[in-house]
Design a protein that fits this description.
two-stranded antiparallel sheet, 2 helices, 5 strands, extended, DNA recombination, structural constituent of chromatin, Integration host factor subunit alpha, DNA-binding
Length: 80
């Protein structure tokens, strides 16, 4: 199916650390987060949070305008 093929291609690109831009929709990217200290909410004890990768989505200005029923600003890159 076409959609499954597109999603598979997007996932493979993200696994390689590449950003994926879909014009008029937004950009998917992977961000590395370093190790940091967290806190157990029950005990208050400090616990290390290991480094990890997180998926980030940044919507395009065009998509945000559509969702908010607004006009996108003319002359501005609509794909942020």
């Amino acid at each position: 199916m076409l959609l499954e093929d597109v999603l598979e291609t997007v996932m493979q690109a993200l696994e390689r650390g590449e950003s994926v831009k879909i014009s008029g929709f937004g950009t998917f990217s992977v961000r590395k987060k370093g190790q940091r200290c967290g806190r157990n909410p029950k005990t208050g004890e400090e616990v290390p949070i290991l480094p990890r990768s997180v998926l980030v989505f940044r919507s395009s200005q065009l998509l945000r305008a559509e969702v908010n029923h607004e006009e996108a600003e003319p002359g501005v890159d609509h794909d942020d």
